Amino acid sequence: MPLPLINDYKAAIANAKGRFATLDVRPHLDARCSPVFLAGNFAGVFKMVTGEGEHVAVKCFTREVSDLPRRYAAVAKFCRTAQCPYVVPLRFLPAEVFVTSSVAPHADYAVVTMPWVEGRGLGAVVQILCQRENAPALAGLTRAWSRLCLDLLQRGVAHGDLKHDNVLVGQDGALKLIDYDSMYLPELKGLASTMLGGVNFQHPRREVRHFDGTIDHFSMLVILLSLRALTFQPDLLKRHHNGENLVLTKSDFTRPDSSDLLRQWALSPDFHVRDWTEHLIKAAKAPMIRIAAMEALLKAAAKVEAVPAKPPTKRLLSFFS
């Protein structure tokens, strides 16, 4: 069934009174008295105000997502019970907002609600830190990113679309993930991915059939390596960031041997940049999207400092041990 356009939802939200089945909300308006919202590939997220004056996010879907109720029932349960510090609680309301549309039936449509999380996107924070050449803060962000990724891996779950736009950094430096449309949870095993994620963060061979706890590996490494490289070369962001990436792009993954950035990083004075570049090149060429060493790389990243790292000292095994 076709779904309403974002402008249809915008018109409904602008006249919210009587539109919602259970929610008591009104739109948060911008300077032009229009509803504040963010548009994505599958949905629009509106900033709303409850009757108690709290801000909430209301997500309205513009493209059909297969098994949407099943997926969001599992995600809502995980966010409510897992005590994961990197997700926010949400609710899936299957027939909540009444919308009139020229392309879809006039009907009540599903929404997802969650608290409105204040914070800057990871990309915006990285841009500020690079402009200030704040290497200690970039190293701290790298450590925080590694802890987030390790938490997901150890739970056997995956976000499915890790990129700079889907990670928020709070004023206290805490990271939060948003946009759970493509999240993998063990109880969703057997389904297909709803999307393939941002091309500048994903393995070039990722397909919808890939839907398990390893689908985040490549994007985890892309962000990890980018943060580490920017710690020592913050000027790279100005030269390579295009709004849809951090510094690397899809072409670096499809043709890694021709990538100037990867060639440069392979000679970095920092051991981690060299090592993670080698792993990224190997992963990009591999037919599998899983990276066997991902957990070990993240554990090393959790200890990085704002100075170039030396190779780890290899222990000599004694014949008498």
From TrEMBL:
Keywords: Kinase, Serine/threonine-protein kinase, Transferase. Gene3D superfamilies: Transferase(Phosphotransferase) domain 1. The keyword Transferase applies. One of its GO terms (molecular function) is protein serine/threonine kinase activity. InterPro entries: Kinase-like_dom_sf (IPR011009), Prot_kinase_dom (IPR000719), Ser/Thr_kinase_AS (IPR008271). Residues 31-289 form the Protein kinase domain. This is Serine/threonine protein kinase. The lineage of its organism: Bacteria, Pseudomonadati, Pseudomonadota, Alphaproteobacteria, Rhodospirillales. It comes from the Bacteria.
